[in-house]
Structures are given as C-alpha cells and as structure tokens.
Write a structure and sequence with these properties.
The complex is a heterodimer of chains A (about 425) and B (about 180). Chain A has 15 helices and 18 strands. Chain A has about 425 residues and is an alpha/beta fold. Chain A folds into two domains: about 260 residues, Aconitase, domain 3; about 150 residues, Aconitase, domain 3 (2-Layer Sandwich). Chain A has a five-stranded parallel β-sheet, sandwiched between helices. In chain A, strands 16-15-14-17-18 form a five-stranded parallel β-sheet. In chain A, strand 12 and strand 13 form a beta hairpin. In chain A, helix 6 packs parallel to helix 8, helix 12 crosses helix 14 and helix 12 runs parallel beside helix 15. The longest helix of chain A has 16 residues. Chain B is of the alpha/beta class and about 180 residues long. Helix content of chain B is about 30%, strand content about 15%. Chain B is built from seven helices and seven strands; from the N terminus they run βααβαβαβαβββαα. Chain B has a seven-stranded mixed β-sheet. In chain B, helix 6 crosses helix 7. The longest helix of chain B has 13 residues. Classes of the chains: A alpha/beta (about 425), B alpha/beta (about 180). At the A-B interface, helix 2, helix 3, helix 5 and strand 7 of A face helix 1, helix 4 and helix 7 of B.
Chain lengths: ~425, ~180
Amino acid sequence: MGKTFSEKILGLKAGREVQAGDVVTVSPDYILSHDNSAAIIKEFQKLGIKNVKAPQKLVIILDHVVPASSEKYALNHKVIREFVVGQKIPNFFDVPNGICHQVFSENGFALPGKLILGADSHTTSYGAFGAFSAGIGRSEVASLWATDEIWLKVPETIKIEINGSLSPGVYAKDVILKIIGEEGADRANYKAVEFAGETVKSFSLASRLVLTNMAAEMGAKNGYCEPDEKTVQWLENRARNDFSEVVSDPDANYEAVLKYDISSLEPQVACPHTVDNVQSISEVEGTGFHQALIGTCTNGRLEDLELAAEILKGKKVHSQVRVLIIPASREEYIQALKKGIIEIFAEAGCIVLNPGCGPCLGAHQGILAPGEVALSTANRNFRGRMGSRDSEIYLASPATVAASSIEGKIADPRKFV
Amino acid sequence: MEETALSGKTWVLLNQEGKLIEDIDTDQIYHNSFLHITEIQQMGQYALGNLEGWKDFPQKARPGDILITGRNFGAGSSRQQAVDCFISLKVGLILAPSFGAIYFRNAVNSGFPVLKCPELDELVAQRILETENEIKVDLRSGKGINVSKDRPFDVEPMSAVQYDIFKAGSLFMYGKKTSRDNGK
C-alpha cells in the first residue's frame, strides 16, 4: 500500500516509516508567529530557558493589529521587537509588511516538502506550495522555541478531486465555500485534505491558497496541493532554501475520496454564523449590508484586487455602504498601485487601508456595531468576530463583494463580468 | 495503582431546544476583545462570554466542574486563551463528541483534560446526563459513571501522549522528561 503526502513527509522528518494514527516527534523547518508572539514570549520565559534553540527557524510577522491601535497592543509589539533583538532572530517582519501568511509565502519560506508550524489556524495555507503546514497553539510554540521538537499525530487524509471549468464570475472562493457547505465545518477535523483534479491544476498559486487557507474551516490539520511547474515558477527568486517535492503515492490509502464537478457552480455565500452555512447567490441576493471588506489572508492578493477593480472601475460604491480594501501585503499593495488599481478603488469611494488583518478578527479598522451586517472576503463568519456579538457576517468572493458594494445589497457578480 | 479518574459536577451546555450546543467556536468561548491579555489568571472572567445564555458561567463555575458540550467544540482560531480561560477557572474536564483540531491539541499540550465522548448527544437526549450531576471518568480506561444516577457511560480514553502530558503538567515538562528518559 502506498503512502499519502502527510505520511511520507512526517515519516521523512521522523526518520522512520509511519502511517496515519502514529505519533511522531519532529523538528519543523520554520515556526511562524505573529502579534501573539508577545504571549508566547511570556510562556517561553516561564520555562526558565534563556535562549531560543534555533532562532533561524523563527519567523515573526506583525499583522493582527498594525500599527498598534491601543497602548496594550503597542506594548505587545514593543516586547516582541526587544525579544527579536535579544534572541538574534533574523526573520522578523514589522508592521509595514502585511498579513503573515502572505508575507511568509512571498519571502520564500513556504516551500514544497517543508514542515511548517505556526501559531495561527490559517497556517494550513502553505499546503498550496506542497508544504506540510499546520496551526498550533501558544504553549506549543513556546515549547518549540525552547526544544526545537514537537509531537504530531500523523493525520488520515481526505482527497478532494475538483474537476470542470468555472463559469465567468465564479472563483476558487466559491469552490471552497461549496465544499465546506456540503461537507460541514468539522468534516476534516484532525485530518489532512489534499486538493486534486484538473481545476486545482488550472488554478494560480493565489487561487490554490484560497483552498488551503480555508481547509482550516473544515477543521483540517493541513491542506495540500501537489506542487507542479507553476509552483516552481512562483518560487523562482523567492525560495529561501533548497527544496524537494513530496507527493502522495498513486495507491495511497485515503480516508475518503470526494469528487466535485464545478462546471455549473454558481457564486456561493456563507451566511451567519458558521462557515458551513452556505447558500447559492440566488438564495441571498438582495440582502442588505453596511460594510464590505475586500482583503484578508484568504482573498487580499493582487489577483483578488484586480478582479474587484474590474468590477468597480468607473463606478461608485453605494452611498449606504462602507467599502474597505486591504491588500494582503506591501508587495501586493505596490503592485496594485503600479497597475492603477488603488486609484480605481479610491475613485469608487472605497477606503484603502494598510496591509494587515484589518477588522477580520474584530480588533480595529472597521468594527461592527450591534445590528450591522458585513460582507467580507475573509474565511470566518463566527458570531461577533468583527465586533458586536449582535452583528452578522456573510462571506463571498472578491467579485461578489465588489458587485454587491455597487448595488448596496448582496448581488450576483455575473452581471458585472 | 495511580489514580487515573477525574470527578466533578457537570454543566451541560444546552440550546433552547434542550440539545447540546454544537460548533461553539473560539470567538464564542473567548472573544477577540480580550486577546491582548497575556496573564492566564485574568482570562477566566471572559470564558464563554460570547455564548448566548452562558455569559455568567465564570461566576457559576466552581473548581473541578466538568463542562459537557456539543460536537466541534473550539472550532476556529488557534487562540489558546480559549483553553486557558477554563484553566483559569480551574474547570476540571471538558467532554464533547468532538473538538476543533487545534483546540484539542492546545488542551492536550496545556495538560488540560479534554475527552471525546461520541455518545454524548444520546446521553443528554435521554437525560442520563444533566447539569449538576456528579460524574466520574477514568482517563485511561474511558469508563465513566454518572454517580448521581448510577448510570455508566463510555468516553474515548486519553492516548498515551495525551495522558503523559497531562501527568507531566505541560508539554514542556513532558518534553524534558522524554529527553531525560531517552538520554538514559
């Protein structure tokens, strides 16, 4: 019997043959943390260890509340900066750079065949490059900083084969929302999810990142797309290290193989308050909202901004809605600027904010009042996530959010593309 | 034999239909407004603060109490405050049919006992398990008993690694112990 990607890579790291269910002790290639590094530092100091064991493996990126919105956040950032200097951590990205998952990828840390652990649930993203990457907690990261080792349970794998070509106005976001809606928010709990099939192969890396980013919303431990020539091309001039691809054997043992034909898929919307509460656009068209958000680690890349700009070009956003645009990183921001996309947003009446997580996790830059509704390109719509617990969040593609911003209510983007 | 059982009084998280609340995500367990807090002692007061009907849980909970909840408890963010807030309140154990993957790991690695009980919905539906019952669960055998009603039930026992970390107190102490044992 062959092995899945996850069995192979964790076996390589553990130095022995493993199969799903085994517990291995491994040393990751990179350890990501963001603003929560402040809390991790506190845990680390409690351990009574003076020095981080492998400082070159740490990647610290400030993104959650940037620049600091209050004295408390400012103090957390200050503590992190001092720690970075004291521990001689070479890979530190301060507040101007953008969302950790985008910055981590652009800077060539996310590579095929690498083991990446991060103190953020959307660390699953780097599976788009063929890495094994999973979110872990604060104590685990503190312990990893100290010992450079951690236990992992080798996950079972669900393979999702996606075939067919998308209709105009339908994107990777709609595909993953459809899958999560069908399978449920806990279908992949503790499991690996491999995205395969012709549709995935046809996707850009930016679109593949949408799938692996949102694998977390099915409960997945990690997501994965098999690396190909597009992956290698994307990594050219970016990769920080040598890498070699690890792929599943053709006769690997899967927990399930799920098949999706997306040829006739319509735009999808996740309704409040769970990501698996998914409807086709026709079911929710006309729903009013107060604030739109185009950005986040799910859909704040150039590809997404271009899509939104095509729809918003020469138009004005509806007077009853506020439209926030947050490029995922400084690099994406600069490219969007050069292409004139930022100008289109500004002309249309959008609020263009600095790269970062913005209001996605409800910390700053557009908090919702009681009774308000947001339409967002983010990955999570939990009750109260963007502010008041009496607010609501709908999730959709950048095209759907852009089209809806013009109409002032949830609208079908196919009319605009 | 070392003691491998935990016992305590239950809080059953029910919705208005009298069923276990499912998909209680990390935002409902520990709201993002308090993410800047880094001291565990201060986190308990916000536990379940965003869950309809349970905002007063921190005032009601007593050390050693056992939380009974619906499937996919702790879905979502990796925020460890969602585990730490219960440690802060000295909650003794959480039982659910399933947990969010990162939540489960966070709990295991904090040495905080969480156990999966696939038959939990059934036990609650048949009123074999209710709020304020005294229950006892053996972490290693998975044998549980509702002492108040003298009714047995089963949970998935702790795996070896989960139990060892629980006994060691934390992931780091466990790691220290394993490196020491391997060095022998």
